[in-house]
Write a structure and sequence with these properties.
Elements lengths: L1 E11 L8 E9 L3 E6 L5 H8 L8 E8 L2 E2 L5 H7 E4 L12 H11 L4 H14 L15 H13 L5 E5 L7 H18 L2 E5 L6 H4 L2 E6 L2 E6 L1 H7 L11 H8 L10 H11 L17 E10 L9 E9 L2 E6 L6 H8 L7 E6 L2 E2 L13 E4 L12 H12 L3 H15 L14 H13 L5 E5 L7 H16 L3 E5 L3 H7 L2 E6 L2 E2 L5 H7 L6 H6 L9 H13 L1
Parallel strand pairs: 3-8, 3-9, 6-7, 7-8, 13-18, 13-19, 16-17, 17-18
Antiparallel strand pairs: 1-2, 1-4, 4-5, 9-10, 11-12, 11-14, 14-15, 19-20
Helix pairs in contact: 3-4, 3-5, 9-10, 9-19, 13-14
């Protein structure tokens, strides 16, 4: 049975000539698991919100959306609220109550269910999702993974027929993200719930999907089974965001069926290549002087709470990209805030360029010294357009009008945000906001750049732009500290990586040492190639090793 049909759907926002969505037609059967992917700003979020009529943006809509063979916008409000569920990108943005048990009850209470029915359903869902151990906790005390699981469970209390999810794993660590995706598969498999999921993180999703829909500039360019989409778009640049197994197979001119999983990718490598050593390009190890020195740092947010950091030590140098990984709520963002002087440790010492952080007075820490991109890019914007925001920071930095224009144009080209300059920051997609916020931070021209989840919500192309920007900053002698859940990005770009665990930063290692020795905090390419190629932790390294063996 067909649950959703889009017929020649076209949409544009008010005052915008460019169409956000153009002539999209697709049909989704009941029980399908559909993954929606494409570049940031290609229209994924707009499409999802148009299907959830309560969230539909204002603008010019053409075409038709049918839900269960009836026009969506004629659907009864109660039916829409209960049968079409929506889980947003930001875990905190969807939580509306203070207690976990109340959050689970909220939707049913608003739909007028009897108390006895609510209690039974909430009890059932709490057990199904494993929420029982934190059932009576305050929602603000939950980790990012727990909050997103709570959002999903709260939506499922009203038994929706279709689930719409907008990049729900973008703020989750690798283990929490894998658990969340496994839960979605379980819901789809055991309850028959239809799932339409927009994501950039595709490693675990392609194998789970019945269909993959690929969007480009508002248009649907492919809609088929995952393997067929990989075959169809084999030479398309958009495949740069596909799973590692797919990219390796494509680049090594693989024959037969395209592998999707680590297991299938490993089988492909074993069948086509002999185990061999690899000649790696050495990572940079001769760093400059110490820019950041943290010694025995202890921190808690309130006296009655537990310590988040417990004796953390680290030294980070100029000309270095240092990546910090770890689970949700492990203290990574807190660590950045301490370095940025936004929080103060109650024990220990932090030195910035050899000077105690307490000795920087009257904003001296922030003038060409330390700058931070927070996890939520919306907090960076204060003006009505992106360009006004960028001009505002240029004024604060004392740049002349000509200097400001030149610097903004240069950054716009490097980050591909030129077409966004006249847009309101809050009208942008999550990935577009991230890039524009980064541009504003870079205009402060800091010696130390702190980035909190900079790849959140951005596509493979934007990551390549960010990679180029970070490499240039490192070559200029900057110190870049990057907190991330994106293990693939860390493997490609870091000079050293460290895991924050139990309040301490564990030994910092080169990416090859770090990811080759890990089984869970590691890359798909590393899992796929172990025992075949040595210390190949990125898809590009596996491809290079395979090609080198061909030459031999």
């Amino acid at each position: 049975m067909e649950i959703l049909a889009l017929k020649h759907l076209t949409f544009s926002y008010p005052g915008q000539e460019q169409k956000a969505i153009e002539d999209i037609s697709m049909r989704i059967r009941s029980g399908d698991f559909v993954v929606l992917c494409g570049q940031s700003g290609c229209g994924k979020t707009t499409l999802l919100k148009l299907i959830k009529k309560e969230l539909a943006p204002h603008g010019n809509l053409e075409g038709e959306i049918l839900y269960c063979n009836k026009p969506l916008y004629k659907t009864d409000d109660r039916v829409s609220a209960s049968e079409i569920g929506f889980v947003a990108q930001n875990p905190e943005g969807q939580i509306v109550t203070d207690k976990v048990w109340h959050e689970l009850s909220f939707a049913m209470e608003n739909l007028g269910y009897e108390n006895s029915a609510i209690s039974l359903r909430v009890g059932e869902l709490a057990n199904y999702f494993g929420i029982t151990p934190w059932f009576r906790k305050q929602t603000q005390t939950l980790s990012g993974g727990q909050k997103q699981l709570l959002n999903l469970a709260a939506v499922m209390t009203v038994s929706p027929k279709i689930l719409l999810l907008d990049e729900p794993t973008s703020q989750l660590d690798p283990i929490a993200a894998a658990d969340f995706i496994a839960t979605l598969q379980k819901i789809n498999r055991e309850l028959g719930t239809t799932i339409l999921l927009a994501e950039h993180r595709l490693e675990e999703l392609f194998p789970a999907a019945d269909k993959v829909a690929v969007m480009e500039n508002g248009r649907l360019i492919a809609y088929d089974s995952p393997r067929q989409v990989c075959m169809t778009l084999k030479n398309n640049p958009i495949s740069a965001g596909f799973p590692s197994a797919v990219r390796i197979w494509q680049s090594l001119e693989g024959k037969n069926e395209c592998p999707l999983t680590v297991k299938e990718g490993r089988e492909y490598l074993e069948e086509n290549f002999e185990p061999s050593l690899c000649n790696h390009v050495s990572r940079k190890s001769d760093f400059g002087i110490p820019f950041i020195q943290m010694s025995d740092i202890w921190f808690r947010y309130a006296k009655e709470e537990e310590d988040i950091l417990r004796g953390a030590d680290v030294t980070i140098h100029g000309g270095e990209i240092f990546c910090i990984l770890g689970g949700n709520a492990s203290g990574k963002s807190t660590l950045l805030k301490l370095i940025a002087g936004l929080r103060k440790a109650y024990r220990g010492k932090i030195e910035i360029l050899g000077k105690s952080i307490q000795k920087y007075k009257n904003g001296g820490l922030y003038r060409h010294m330390v700058s931070m991109l927070p996890q939520d890019p919306q907090t960076v914007f204060v003006a009505g357009t992106v360009k006004e925001d960028l001009l505002d920071i240029c004024g604060i930095m004392g740049f002349s009008k000509k200097e400001s224009e030149n610097k903004i144009n240069e950054l716009s080209d490097r980050l591909s945000i030129g077409r966004l300059l006249d847009r309101h920051p809050h009208d942008l997609s999550g990935g577009e906001q991230q890039k524009c916020a980064l541009a504003k931070v870079l205009l402060t021209e800091p010696k130390i750049l702190l980035l909190d989840e900079p790849t959140k919500g951005i596509d493979a192309y934007a990551k390549l732009s960010l990679k180029s920007v970070l490499a240039g900053l490192r070559d200029d002698g900057l110190c870049v500290v990057l907190v991330t859940h994106d293990v693939e990005f860390a493997a490609e770009n870091a000079d050293r990586c460290s895991l924050l665990f139990d309040g301490e930063l564990l030994e910092a290692l080169s990416p090859e040492q770090f990811f080759s020795s890990n089984n869970f905090y590691t890359t798909s390419a590393s899992r796929m190639s172990r025992g075949i190629f040595q210390d190949t932790i990125t898809a590009e390294a596996v491809i290079a090793a395979g090609r080198a063996q061909w030459k031999d």
